[in-house]
């Protein structure tokens, strides 16, 4: 995310406004360049609403505003407002906290809890994965992450402890400890019920609010030694 637009208006006809926004979403399907939007209602003034719309860039926002469907909907929106809505264009200069939160959601909700449906929200469709523990370390697509999570969850009942996160530009590095119980086949090792542990660091590179690239560094040899030793 590099650009957001804030639309501020007052209206006593929000239900009509809401239906209008749904009409715009349907009319611009496959054309619009907005990536996400939220609408908030002012607690102090019940007729005051603010919409925050995210775009990959200012140029994408301008292309969105030039769509004929956007022109039509805007004219109808003005008619529903008590006065002319105001628009504020903002270049995003800091969103590291959002990226760090998204990284944590992967470890907690996707990897640990198995919410695979969240992968589409968190990862770009052309996500590139670099995993030093694989025979083919560089792969592309969301299905790579989905397959990896499914495989690890079938082999282990596990959780991550996240020790620290560092955000620098569009990248977030997370240092973690992984603890699991071996309950399924893993790289030729049949389940032992053994408790195992390893440490590692993951770097996510974000683009437009989604994870576009990831690098995995972890002590796989330590894990394999524990599995080869068998239950104590």
TrEMBL record:
Pfam families attached to this UniProt entry: SnoaL
What domain of life does the UniProt record list for this protein's source?
Bacteria
Give the matching Gene3D superfamilies: 3.10.450.50
UniProt cross-references to PANTHER family, sorted A to Z? ESTER CYCLASE, POLYKETIDE CYCLASE SNOAL-LIKE DOMAIN
Write the protein's name. Answer: Ester cyclase
Organism annotation: Streptomyces aureoversilis
* Top-level taxonomy: Bacteria, Bacillati, Actinomycetota, Actinomycetes, Kitasatosporales
């Amino acid at each position: 995310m590099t650009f957001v637009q804030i639309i501020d208006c007052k209206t006593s006809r929000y239900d009509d406004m809401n239906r209008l926004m749904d009409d715009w979403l349907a009319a611009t399907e496959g054309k619009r360049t907005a990536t996400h939007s939220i609408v908030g209602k002012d607690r102090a003034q019940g007729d005051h609403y603010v919409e925050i719309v995210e775009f990959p860039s200012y140029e994408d926002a301008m292309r969105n505003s030039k769509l004929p469907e956007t022109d039509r909907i805007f004219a109808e929106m003005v008619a529903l407002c008590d006065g002319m809505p105001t628009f504020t264009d903002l270049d995003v200069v800091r969103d590291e906290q959002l990226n760090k939160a998204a990284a944590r959601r992967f470890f907690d909700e996707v990897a640990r809890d198995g919410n695979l449906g969240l992968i589409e929200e968190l990862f770009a469709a052309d996500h590139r994965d670099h995993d030093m523990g694989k025979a083919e370390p560089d792969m592309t697509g969301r299905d790579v992450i989905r397959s990896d999570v499914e495989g690890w969850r079938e082999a282990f009942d596990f959780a991550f402890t996240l020790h620290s996160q560092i955000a620098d530009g569009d990248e977030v590095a997370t240092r973690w400890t992984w603890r699991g119980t071996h309950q399924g086949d893993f790289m030729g090792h049949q389940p032992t019920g053994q408790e195992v542990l390893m440490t590692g660091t993951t770097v996510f590179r974000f683009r437009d609010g989604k994870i576009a690239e990831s690098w995995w560094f972890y002590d796989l040899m330590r894990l394999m030694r524990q599995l080869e030793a068998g239950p104590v």
